[in-house]
């Protein structure tokens, strides 16, 4: 049986997840604050105060639904059968290829930061924007793989096949 360095795999996936799920919200927050400070017309909300709360709740619900969609996507594409159709795994490149498979999942988890930015420009409510953006790292923490998942996946991918031509 081929041994895979689980720590290396988790590190590669965590590095990608932090870059996407923390970097995108932090970058968008910086852009929002710079635009808000320099363009005074953005300091006026586009929606009335009573409607702003409803809009904020709607964006929070959409952000949570987005993380749920990322969970469903993870269940569909992070399994041995689905991964073997897209990649030809080798133990040396397993960490990189599995991290690449997690990229769309983490990108979907980073989408609430964009929803929060839209909500902020509509309502001018920074607290709701930050609350929506916190869904991104929470989704990363929820969806990152555990050691057991990586070990099970590696065992399924690198398991010897029964239809080999060599029979002893």
Q: Could you please describe the fold and organization of this structure?
A:
The protein is mainly α. It has one domain (6-157). Helices cover 75% and strands 0% of the residues. The protein has helices at 6-21, 23-38, 49-77, 80-86, 94-123, 126-133, 135-143, 147-157. Helix 1 (6-21) runs parallel beside helix 5 and helix 5 runs antiparallel to helix 6. It is elongated, with a radius of gyration of 21 Å. The two termini are 17 Å apart. The model has no long low-confidence stretch (mean pLDDT 86).
The whole-angstrom Rg is 21 Å
Q: For the residues shown, what is the average pLDDT?
A: 86
Total number of helices = 8
Total number of distinct structural domains: 1
Strand portion: under 5%
Q: Let me know the number of strands.
A: 0
Shape field: elongated
Largest β sheet strand count, sense and barrel closure: none
Helical content stands at over 70%
Which structural category do the helix and sheet elements fall into? mainly alpha
Short descriptors:
8 helices; mainly alpha; 168 residues; single chain
List the helices and strands and how they pair.
Elements: H1 6-21, H2 23-38, H3 49-77, H4 80-86, H5 94-123, H6 126-133, H7 135-143, H8 147-157
What does this entry show, briefly?
With 168 residues, this protein is mainly alpha-helical. The protein contains eight helices and no strands.
């Amino acid at each position: 049986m081929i041994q895979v360095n689980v720590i290396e795999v988790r590190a590669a996936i965590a590095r990608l997840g932090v870059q996407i799920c923390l970097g995108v919200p932090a970058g968008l927050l910086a852009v929002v604050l710079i635009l808000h400070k320099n363009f005074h017309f953005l300091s006026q909300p586009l929606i009335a105060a009573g409607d702003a709360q409803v809009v904020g709740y709607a964006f929070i619900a959409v952000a949570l639904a987005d993380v749920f969609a990322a969970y469903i996507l993870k269940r569909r594409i992070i399994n041995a059968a689905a991964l073997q159709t897209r990649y030809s795994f080798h133990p040396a490149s397993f960490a990189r290829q599995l991290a690449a498979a997690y990229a769309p999942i983490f990108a979907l988890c980073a989408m609430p930061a964009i929803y929060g930015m839209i909500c902020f420009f509509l309502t001018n409510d920074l607290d709701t924007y930050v609350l929506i953006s916190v869904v991104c790292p929470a989704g990363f923490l929820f969806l990152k793989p555990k050691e057991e998942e990586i070990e099970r996946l590696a065992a399924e991918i690198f398991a010897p096949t029964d239809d080999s031509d060599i029979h002893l």
